[in-house]
Q: What sequence folds into this?
């Protein structure tokens, strides 16, 4: 497991947006960021789940989060731009962006992949992070120490049979991360971009991918948070364009 002990105030006064914040790894990351002082913007498609995370953060006495309901499957370019405007009006900048939301899609040989399903996975997992990054980069540039984290997967670094559009979408995410790591690495060095592979983690996506597996063999989302904290806080200031593993 990634060996990093985050200082309690690691993310004090930082504004961090987490996609897919209502469940699984995104929920754990949103709560961990808030527990370390961040104001977290919870983005997701199921409002009741986002509200539950909001309530947990509020009950723990951490900085009050914000909720952004957005379905990455159907959102239009103007939805992203309006969201960026709202964040600018409320906070003036963004210090962190965790691209976490994703769907698994069909596990099957390429020749049997349903083209519509393929497009949906590519859109949610790869095009939506592009649209979101595009809209939010101006706000990230306003930060003195901003971090963009793209969630990858082992099959996004080395493809394995039957992982279909999911694997290809994660390769796209690795490419987008490399592009941005190069483009944003200017003389100010204030925005860094990396990919993070959580590794096998006990969530509903993992259960769908490996229905026969005993879930207890994998760590809980909370157990892999050291890597998520490290990459979001100032201790990773000089880490840019890297492929990190949480486990
Ligand atoms: N778990 C693992 O073993 C593992 C391994 C490697 C990589 N990963 C990656 O880690 C990340 C988190 O996965 P997880 O295991 O936590 O999965 P999960 O439990 O299925 O959670 C996925 C999250 O994404 C959200 N989401 C899905 N489609 C969306 C859409 N159209 N619009 C907005 N939000 C959407 C979901 O919202 P709802 O709750 O509303 O559905 C949910 O909050 C993903 O990028 C995944 O590829 C996971």
A:
């Amino acid at each position: 497991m990634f060996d990093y002990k985050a200082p309690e105030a690691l993310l004090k006064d930082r504004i961090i947006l987490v996609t897919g914040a209502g469940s699984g790894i995104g929920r754990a990351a949103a709560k961990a960021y808030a527990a370390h002082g961040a104001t977290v913007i919870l983005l997701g498609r199921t409002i009741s789940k986002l509200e539950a995370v909001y309530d947990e953060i509020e009950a723990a006495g951490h900085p009050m989060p914000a909720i952004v309901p957005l379905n990455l499957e159907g959102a239009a370019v103007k939805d992203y731009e309006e969201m960026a405007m709202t964040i600018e009006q409320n906070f003036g900048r963004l210090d962190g962006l965790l691209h976490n939301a994703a769907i698994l899609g069909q596990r099957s040989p390429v020749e049997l992949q349903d083209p519509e399903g393929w497009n949906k996975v590519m859109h949610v997992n790869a095009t939506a992070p592009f649209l979101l990054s595009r809209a939010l980069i101006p706000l990230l540039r306003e930060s003195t120490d901003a971090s963009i984290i793209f969630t990858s997967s082992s099959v996004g670094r080395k493809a394995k049979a039957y992982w279909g559009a999911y694997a290809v979408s994660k390769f796209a995410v690795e490419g987008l991360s490399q592009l941005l790591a190069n483009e944003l690495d200017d003389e100010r060095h204030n925005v860094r971009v990396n990919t993070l592979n959580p590794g096998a983690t006990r969530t509903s996506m993992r259960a769908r991918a490996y229905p026969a597996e005993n879930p207890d063999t994998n760590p809980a989302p909370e157990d892999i948070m050291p890597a998520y904290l490290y990459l979001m806080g100032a201790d990773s200031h000089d880490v840019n364009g890297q492929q990190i593993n949480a486990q």
